[in-house]
């Protein structure tokens, strides 16, 4: 069945930003094709099977799609290898706008998704790259930090006293919807943060205050963090994440932007608001 014009393909549609982007698009009346490996039903959307590493799933997912929200494959140090052929196919199939989820820590031409960022303007006339800071949901969902908090009340990082402009994934999704639907397209990269910078000591203190459950930040050396992460993921990716923590310790993420407020016309949410909403009282 050919999808009506005006359909947006959302990759990672069951994930942290993809799920919220699909929900906000459908709530605003947009047609959404929700892509996930097992074509999980997503309310208000047309589900479709999609796997970055299964090229046979790409053409059916793209049929009739004119915009795409791109969530890179998780844990892949070279996502361009699978993403660039898909994006070339998208352009050939008539997709005219692409919005890529990257990271505030990765500039165009940088490691991993930075290579996709660099290539995007040459592939599409209408594009945007979202470069959010670290997700507030890292402390509430299935992320390693959230699991550690629930298991033994600790946060283990190599960030020292470095500060981060943590951002709510709902705000990332709101900017994604803007970037996918606004006229003209942004045609730029957008660094997204929350309204304040916080150290991991602050994060632990806020969770403790709101939930009543004691959480502490235990600093590690970058090498110790890398070794710990390497038990959970490929060594190259573990090294990259440990290096990002080390950069945070040096001030790389100590900044606040007004992008969320400017584009969505409402203030970015605070971490305390997120914890009250998603962790509640009593943890």
Topology:
Elements: E1 7-10, H1 18-27, E2 31-36, E3 46-49, H2 58-62, E4 65-70, H3 80-92, E5 97-101, H4 114-123, E6 126-132, H5 144-152, E7 154-157, E8 163-164, H6 169-181, E9 188-192, E10 198-199, H7 200-211, E11 216-219, H8 222-229, H9 235-249, H10 259-264, H11 271-278
Parallel strand pairs: 1-2, 1-4, 2-3, 4-5, 5-6, 6-9, 7-11
Antiparallel strand pairs: 8-10
Helix pairs in contact: 1-6, 3-4, 7-11, 8-9
Protein model, in words:
There is one protein chain. The chain has 283 residues and is of the alpha/beta class. The chain is 39% helix and 17% strand. It has eleven helices and eleven strands. A seven-stranded parallel β-sheet has the order 3-2-1-4-5-6-9, sandwiched between helices. Strands 7-11 form a two-stranded parallel sheet. The chain is globular and about 50 Å long. It starts with 6 loop residues before the first strand and ends in a 5-residue tail after the last helix.
List keywords for this structure.
283 residues; alpha/beta; seven-stranded parallel sheet; two-stranded parallel sheet; 11 helices
Mean pLDDT comes to 94
The biggest sheet, with number of strands, parallel, antiparallel or mixed sense and barrel status, is:
7 strands, parallel
Structural class of the secondary structure composition?
Answer: alpha/beta
Secondary-structure element sequence? EHEEHEHEHEHEEHEEHEHHHH
Task: Note the overall shape.
Answer: globular
Give the strand order of the largest sheet, numbering strands 1, 2, ... along the chain: 3-2-1-4-5-6-9
Number of beta-strand segments? 11
Helix-residue proportion: 25-40%
């Amino acid at each position: 069945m050919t999808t009506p014009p005006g359909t947006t393909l959302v990759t990672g549609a069951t994930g942290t930003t993809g799920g919220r982007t699909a929900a906000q698009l459908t709530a605003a009346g947009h047609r959404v094709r929700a892509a996930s490996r097992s074509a999980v039903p997503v309310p208000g959307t047309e589900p479709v099977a999609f796997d970055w590493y299964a090229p046979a799933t790409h053409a059916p997912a793209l049929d009739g799609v004119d915009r795409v929200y791109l969530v890179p494959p998780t844990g892949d140090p070279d996502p361009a290898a699978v993403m660039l052929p898909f994006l070339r196919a998208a352009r050939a199939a008539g997709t005219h706008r692409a919005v890529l989820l990257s990271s505030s820590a990765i500039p165009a031409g940088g490691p991993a998704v930075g290579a996709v960022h660099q290539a995007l303007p040459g592939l599409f006339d209408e594009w945007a790259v979202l470069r959010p800071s670290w997700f507030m949901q890292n402390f509430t969902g299935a992320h390693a930090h959230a699991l550690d908090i629930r298991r033994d009340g600790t946060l283990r990082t190599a960030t020292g006293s470095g500060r981060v402009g943590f951002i709510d994934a709902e705000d990332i999704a709101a900017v994604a919807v803007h970037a996918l639907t606004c006229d003209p397209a942004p045609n730029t990269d957008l660094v997204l943060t929350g309204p304040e910078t916080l150290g991991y000591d602050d994060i632990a203190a806020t969770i403790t205050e709101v939930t009543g459950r004691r959480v502490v930040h235990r600093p590690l050396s970058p090498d110790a963090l890398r070794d710990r992460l390497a038990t959970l993921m490929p060594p190259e990716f573990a090294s990259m994440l440990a290096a990002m923590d080390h950069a945070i310790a040096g001030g790389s993420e100590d900044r606040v932007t007004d992008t969320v407020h400017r584009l969505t016309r409402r203030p970015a949410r605070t971490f305390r608001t997120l914890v009250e909403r998603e962790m509640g009282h009593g943890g």
